[in-house]
Description:
alpha+beta; Elongation Factor Tu (Ef-tu), domain 3; six-stranded antiparallel barrel; four-stranded antiparallel sheet; 21 strands
Amino acid sequence: MPKTKSLSRLGIIALVVAVLAYASWFATRPEPIEVELATIERGLVEATVVNTRAGTIKACRRAKLAPAAGGQIVKLWVKEGERVQQGQVLLELWNTDLSAQRELVRRQLTMAEERRREVCIVADNARRESERTQQLAAQGFVSPQRGETVDAEARARQASCDAAASDVKRAQAQIQVTQAGLERTVLAAPFAGIVARITGELGEYATPSPPGIPTPPAIDLIDDTCLYVSAPMDEVDAPKLKAGQLARVTLDALPGQTFAGRVRRIAPYVTEVEKQARTVDVEVDFEEPPQLPLLVGYSADVEVVVERRDNVLRVPTQAIRQGGKVLALGADHKLQERGLQTGLANWAFTEVTGGLNVDERVLLSSDQDGVTAGVQVKQKPPKP
């Protein structure tokens, strides 16, 4: 009996020691580190390319207009920011001399037409007289010599009529020449649009740009009903680009908004800019006209989708560490390092072809110290 009691005491003492040891370990054990975890799921993954430098919103039609002839500005029919219609006169140069010349040739045309009418009436009368004389000569009432004289006179009168008709055509051509000279002093809108800028004031002298010498245009006209984006892409990405590919456009002026577009043109050459990467210009049309007014010249970024796969296993790209590995959450809430086999990738998601299964959780990028494989972690509560 005493021996049994001694064993019982030893058992109780051992149990107390074990409980105290567990309590001491529990009280001093390291707390799990709170981290952000992402769940592996299926979804869409796209391979995309983006512009290397900021792109630009451009108008499908933009004309920097100047009169075809030089001269003094005497009339400005529009103001900056005004909308104009096709054919509307925008600006006129001094052309009083050409207007006077046009009036002169118009009067000359009137005189030529009156002269033609006069000589042609005489020619017609001479023709009828010749016909009657020829009939009388055939019957022997007049001499053949008389018939030849009358016929020659009729033909001469007809020649005068033809010459007068040529004078009329020459006067008409002179009017067209004068009118063309007047049109060179008038600047009209080649298409409907908005006047972006006017260079020049009343009384100033406007000149067209001579070859090799850039001169500011008199009027900058923009058709803002049709817009597109021009963006430079790295030459390395050029072989991946094709006309018709889906694109997404974002603007610095409208943060948080994305506009769908399509690649419409890829430049057939590489642009070489000093101290910058060589690029290929890509033009993107908007799928639908933006509801908000966009200004020509806005900076824009373009993301072109070169390939896409739906319903594939994907992991957030930021969760992938150096060497193509991730830290996955194990059954004991400890991080385990896994190697991945990947497919398509972009800045948001990367396709997983091996190394992870659906519904597993992985560590997103973390700057916390001590977050390595084997460390126990717990999910950080969501931000309110």
